[in-house]
Write the C-alpha cells for this entry.
Amino acid sequence: MMIPFLIAVGVMCAITSLLAVIMVIADATIGNYGDVTITINGEKSVTVEGGHPLLSTLKEEEIFIPSACGGRGSCGLCKLKVLEGAGEPLPTEMPWLDPDEVASHVRLSCQVKVKNDIRIEVPEELFSVKQFETEVKAIRDLTHDIKEVRLKLIEPEGIEFTAGQFVHFEVPVYALTDEPVYRAYSLSSGPTEHGEIELEIRYVANGICTTYVHQHLEVGQNITINGPYGDFYLRDTDSDIIFIAGGSGMAPIKSILHEMARTGSQRKARYFFGARSVRDLFLLDDMKALEEQLPDFRFIPALSDPDPEDHWEDETGLITQVVGRHVEDASQMEAYLCGSPLMIDACIAVLREKGMPEEKVYFDKFS
Amino acid sequence: MAQSPYLSRVQSEMRPGVITQDGFLGNDHRELQEILIEDDATVKRLNTTHAAIAARMHELMEAGAEGLGLPIDVPPHFEIQVDSVRGKLPCPFMGGTIVQKLNTTVFNTRLGREITYTDLNIHMIEEHGFYEGRGSLFRMPPEELAEILEMDLREPPPEDEEGATPRLCVRKDDHDF
C-alpha cells in the first residue's frame, strides 16, 4: 500500500522537476532573442538587444518617441510606422489605430516587442529630440494649485524649440510610483532662453507627476527631461489671432506671446483666459506688460464664478460665452486653444459658429 | 464556489502596472469574485442597483461638465469639477471598452465630503458591479457613493426593467463565477 504511494509521489516530483528544468531552458533560449537590427528610415541601422518594447529600445538609442503614459498603451501618442518584422497589431493597439493607420503599418511603439530585425520610419523632427539633465532653479506658486518650475539645463546646456512645444518630465521613483514615469508639460518660457526652461504644473488629485511636483520637488534637485515635441506653434500668417486657455493652458500661449513680442509681431491678438475666481488668475502683470509691448494685443480674463470679495467688474461667464460676445466674424482669423478637452471642444463649436474654418483652429488638449 | 477562469484573468489585468500604475485592487487580497459579491450585497441592502448608482454618477458628471473644466455649483449643494487627464483607459473586464480619462470630483458642501471618480468607474459599476478593491486609489464604497451623491434610496430598485437589476458580471459567456 505504502510503496505504490511513494512511487506515485516520486513520479510526480520527477515530472515537476523536469517541467521546471524545461521552463528554465526555454526562458534562457526561446525568450532570448539575441541581437536584432532596427533599420530606421531605410538609412540608419542600429543593433540592439531583442525582447524589449520598441519605445524603450529606441530611447536607449537616444531616439525619443512622444509618450505620456510611460509605455502602458493608454495614451496612444507613441505611434510609429513599423514596415516590417512586427507582425499584426495587438488587440491593445487597435483602439488607438484607425483603418488607414493599420493599412499603413502604424503601430504603438510601446506595444511592439523587438523580437527580430525590423524596419521602421521615424519622423525627422524626432531626431532633434534630446534628453536633458537639469537642476531645479526655482519653484513659485502661481495660484493655489499651479506651480511654476524653472529648470536650469546642465547637459546639454541649451535647448532649441518652437514656442508652444512641450517636453517630457521624468518623475523619479517615489511613494506613488515604483518606476520612473514621464509626463508631458508645455514650455512656458520663450525659445531664446536657451539655458533655462519654465513649466507650469497644475495639481491633479492623485496624479503621479503633479503630486510629485507639488509635494516633493525641491530647489537644487536634478531632474531629467526630454524634448521638444509637438506641433502646437504660431503659424506664419498675417491673420488676426484668438488665443483661448484655462489653468495651466496658459503655458504655451505665454511662450508664444513672448516670442511675438521678441520678434516685433504686428498681428492683432486677443487672449481669452478662463478661470473660476480671482484666486485662479495669475501672471496678470506679465500679460499687462505684453499688452504694452505688442501693438494690438488684449488679455481678456473671464471669471465663471467670482467670489463677492473679488469685486470683479470685468468679464464674467463661461469662456465660450465671453468669446461669443467679443468675436463677431472669425472667418478670417485663426485660433490657438490650450486647456481642458471639454473647454476646447466647446470653444471650437463657438468658433465654427462665428465662421472660423476648422483648419484654422489649432489646439493642445490635455488628453 | 471557485472563481471562474475569466474572473481570474480579469483579476490579473487589475494588478498594479498592467493597465494603471496602481491597479484596481489596492491592498485587497480577496478573490475578485468575493469583492463583487460583497459590494453587490451592500448595494441590495441599500435598496438600489448598480445601474442606478452609475446613472447618478453620470448625471452629476454631465452637470459638472458644463463648467468646461472649471468647478461649478450644482443644485442643491454640490460643487463639481470635471477634468480630463491625458490618455484613455481600457476596462480590465476585457470587453473592449476604452474610456477617456475623465475625472469628476463631487464636493458635497452640506456634508463637507468629497469623492472623485473616473468615467471608467462609472462603466465598471454599471456594467460589472465593480467598485474597486479596498485601499485602491479610486475605491468607491457603494454606501459612500450613495451618501455623498445623495441618492434617493426610498424607491425600490427597478428590477423589472431590462439592464437595471443588479449584475455581478455582464460577460454573456461567463455568468458562472
Summary: Chain B touches chain A at residues 17, 19-22, 65-73, 82-90, 96, 98, 100-101, 103, 105, 116, 137-138 (CB under 8 Å). The beta strands of chain B are 72-74, 78-90, 98-108, 113-118.
